[in-house]
Amino acid sequence: MPITFGPKRNIAQGSPSELSVCSVTGTLAPDATGLYFKTDDWAEHSCYRRNDSAWFIWWNQYNSTWYISAEAGSAGQYQWTSEDMANTEYAPSGDSFGTATVTKVK
């Protein structure tokens, strides 16, 4: 059962052409690489979703950590974490493998 942090909101909305963009790269299992678009705020920080809405980058206010996971607000089975949001590496956690590199594109 995934651990859930903070309130859940529908954040998979928004027009990608109007939003900030981050790139996630690396050899990751499962594959969370791709372009992520700012969609909304989560815990007073920006939240990003991958263009297919399968993955999110979000801030966990309870442990002051950025997450890449399949659902914003839920660490889930597969996740990567970092103390910094962008231009940094995220370490695998849970059942994830590989180091994710998040870079701010625009």
Strand content: over 45%
Number of strand elements: 8
Domain count, please report it. 1
Order of helices and strands: EEEEEEEE
Name the helicity range. Answer: under 10%
How many helical elements? 0
Strand order in the largest sheet? 1-2-3-4-5-6-7-8
**pLDDT averaged residue by residue:** 84
Low-confidence parts lasting 5 or more residues at pLDDT below 50? 1-18
* Largest beta-sheet details: 8 strands, antiparallel, barrel
Distance between the termini: 35 Å
Question: Radius of gyration over alpha carbons?
Answer: 12 Å
Coarse structural class: mainly beta
Shape: globular
Summarize the structure in words.
There is one protein chain. The chain has 106 residues and is mostly beta strands. The protein has one domain. The protein has strands at residues 21-25, 34-42, 45-50, 56-60, 65-71, 74-82, 88-94, 100-104. An 8-stranded antiparallel beta barrel has the order 1-2-3-4-5-6-7-8. β6 and β7 form a beta hairpin. It is globular and about 30 Å long.
